[in-house]
Structure formats: structure tokens, C-alpha cells
Amino acid sequence: MQTQFTVQIGSFHKINKIPNAWSNDAYLQLMALMGLDDGLEGMDSAELREMCMMSLNDLGTVEAAKMVLTHLFSDEVTEGKIDQLANDMASDRLWEEYSDCLFHERFFSAYALLREAFNGVFAQPTGVEFSVNITAENTDDLTMFDQSLHPAMVRLLACGLSPDALMHRLYEEQISGTQFPEAEGILWQLVLVSTQEGARQYKMVSSEFWFGQFAQVEQFDATSHADVADEDE
Fold first, then answer.
1. For residue 159, how many C-alpha atoms fall within 13 Å in the half-sphere facing its CB?
2. Distance between CA 26 and CA 93 in Å, rounded?
3. Which of 14, 147, 151, 217 could form a disulfide with 180, with the two C-beta atoms 3.0–4.6 Å apart?
4. DSSP state, 92?
5. For residue 186, how far is the Cα from the chain centroid?
6. What's the whole-model pTM score?
7. Could you give the angle at which helices 61-73 and 24-33 cross, rounded to 10 degrees?
8. How far is it, in rounded angstroms, from Cα 95 to Cα 89?
9. CA distance 165 to 107
10. Alpha-carbon Rg of the chain, whole angstroms?
11. Exposure pattern of 28-60 as b/e (b: 16+ CB <10 Å)?
């Protein structure tokens, strides 16, 4: 059942990297892939990051991209496919263009790291961080976000986009349907900030590709619904 809400866009700004996307452990794993993991124990975070950047730069763009993609995707993507993607990265925008949106957040962070390591050779990733205030006449209606947070939120936000937005063209069936597995690939980070009677505030990170229009939006009426549980589960 479709439930009615009022949505206000709060803070909204563009980002080109996700805070804390690269941890010390991630840098250490990258260095290990490059065979340079000796003598790193005493380094602080800044030194470790700088060493990783310099080591990537020494490899050249394609080999560095291969190392980063291997770290991010080796459990899900074949070595041959990683080689192909590494060659494509310098000319493509894979955080927007890759066919499986569930990979987009990791591509975004890969571009952010490689762009810094190579002083702008790679495209600058374009993301957005924004908050929404959601109100409902019936407080219980807000519990749908507890049932299936990402699907219900993407359906809600789609109501604030223009009818010809890419979201509607690519995911019309999922928006109106009962299953939206791609939703977690569209909203990369989604956190409940506050809750009160009849209202909630969420903060989220996504691609400008999906939600750049919200820079010009203040408020809209919306409907949404939760995914239907799979009876086979």
C-alpha cells in the first residue's frame, strides 16, 4: 500500500570523496598487494596514506587501478574483468556507468583515491551528501523504513525527481513493484539522525548522478512502500 509523506530537503552539498572510505587496514592491504608491506608498523595514518599514494603513483595508472580494483572486487570480479576495468577507468566514469549499481560506491572511492595519487588523471567522482526530514500524519507509517530502509527511501526520494529522471527510466518496475535490491547501490550511506512523533530525519550519501536535482528542491509530497518479504526466505 502506498503511504503519503511530506519530505523536506535539509542540508545538501556535493562531495568528491566519502569520509573514512579508506581505513588504515585498507591501505595496509593495498600495500601488501603491491608487495610493500614490510616496515609499516610504526607509521601513523598520514604517513601510511602518503606511502600508499606514492607507491600507487610509481606503478602507473593502469597497474595502480588494477591494484585498487583487486582490493575492492577480487571476491566478485574475475582477474580478466579487473584488467579490462583498470584500462577503462582513466576514460570512463564507472561510479555512474557500470551496469551493476551495487558496485558504484566502491568505484567512487577507487576514483577518489586514484585521482589523488595521480594528480587529476582520473575523473573526479561527483557525489552528494544530504539530509531529509520526513513527516507522516500517522507515526506508524514511518515504520516502513524499519522494515526495508533502502528500498522504501529510494521510492520516497524518486517522488521528488522529475518524471524523466534517469531513476524513473531505469528502475520504474522496482519503484512501483515489491522488490528493489538495487536500492542499496543507489543510496550508499543512509543513517537515521533523529526521530519524533510523526517525523524522522535521515542523512545519506549517494551519487550526483541520481540526486543532483535535489540541489534545486526544498519540499515535495511523496508516497512509498516497503519491499514484500520473499516467501522463499
1. 22
2. 23
3. 151
4. -
5. 6
6. 0.92
7. 120
8. 10
9. 22
10. 20
11. bbbbebbeeeeebeebeeeebbebbbebbbeee
C-alpha cell at 149: 530502509
Residue 146 burial (CB count, 10 A): 10
Share of residues in the chain with pLDDT > 90 (%): 82
Residue recorded with cell 571476491 = 75
Beta bridge partners of 82: none
Q: How many CB atoms lie within 10 A of CB 78?
A: 10
pLDDT value of position 231: 55
DSSP letter (8 states) at residue 112? H
Residue with cell 519540499: 219
Residue 71 reports pLDDT greater than 80: yes
- Residue among 221, 217, 201 at smallest CA distance from 5: 221
Contact (Cβ atoms closer than 8 angstroms) between residue 11 and residue 128: no
Across-strand partners of 9?
132
Is the per-residue pLDDT at 230 higher than 80? no
Q: How many angstroms separate the CA atoms of 123 and 145, rounded?
A: 34
Nine-digit cell string for 9: 530537503
> Model confidence over 80-136: pLDDT tens digits?
999 999 999 988 999 999 999 999 999 999 999 999 999 889 999 999 999 999 999
